Amino acid sequence: MEENEQFFAKALQKAISIVETVDEQYRDAAFPIILQALVNSSQVAIVNEAPSGTINQQVVGELRLSPNTSVNEFFHIASPDTHPGRFVCAAYYLLHTGKAEQFTVADILDIYGKLRRPKPKNPADVINQCIRKVHIIDASNVTGKQKSWVITPEGERYVEELLSGNSANIKSAS
Q1: The pTM is what?
Q2: Which of 7, 67, 102, 154 has its CA 20 to 30 A from that of 136?
Q3: What is the DSSP letter of 136?
Q4: Angle, vertex CA 109, rays to CA 167 and CA 30, nearest 5
Q5: CB atoms inside a 10 Å sphere around CB 146
Q6: Which residues of 115-140 are buried (b: 16+ CB within 10 A; e: fewer)?
Q7: 150 with 87: CB under 8 angstroms?
Q8: Separation of CA 3 from chain center
Q9: Bigger pLDDT: 49 vs 5
Q10: What is the CATH number of domain 71-167?
Q11: How large is the C-alpha radius of gyration of the chain?
């Protein structure tokens, strides 16, 4: 039993040191993900012996979405079950894959097409629901002639909670 306690103590210390390198706004969401990755990793001993800078960069990099992550894979992991949830997840996907910092309704509906999901009957109402929940806000400028929005830190936390709550799906998608 003492060996297990030492293992978890080392994993906890390592997770804390890694989380300290993450932007403050993401620390609360990153900690359980990093700790889970360290505990599940068969290479925890290697992590504890390696120089901290190399591991920190590696783990932090794994938390970001790759530009090659497919929208279907991302939505399979996040599994939003409402239109507002899908809109916020789409905004998160666009931002974190580097495709767009601002988005329009057309961008979101394009993602619905890629997902082969029925589009909402009233997208403007869905946008308003997301605004009321403070998951998205108006962008500072207009893209073309269409209104643009951006995801808020609260919206990012919402999606990260979906992602961390569905960590079992992450294992099956890998």
Answers
A1: 0.60
A2: 67
A3: E
A4: 25
A5: 11
A6: beeeebeebeebbebbeeeebbeeee
A7: no
A8: 33
A9: 5
A10: 1.10.10.10
A11: 18
Residue 146 has which token pair?
């269409």
- The per-residue pLDDT for 39 is 67
Token pair of 174, please? 């890998």
Q: Which tens digit of pLDDT belongs to each residue from 78-121?
A: 999 999 999 999 999 999 988 888 999 999 999 999 999 999 99
Q: Give the tokens for residue 25.
A: 């706004």
How far, in Å, CA of 136 to CA of 20, rounded?
A: 27
The yes-or-no verdict on residue 132 having pLDDT over 90 is yes
Tokens of 95: 């931002």
Place of tokens 């789409």: 90
Q: Say which residues have a Cβ less than 8 Å from residue 43's Cβ, sequence separation at least 6.
A: none
Tell me the two tokens of residue 81: 């079950």
Tokens representing 88 are 């916020």
Residue 53 to residue 75: CA distance in whole angstroms: 31
Domain boundaries, the chain: 2-64, 71-167
Single-letter amino acid, residue 108 = I
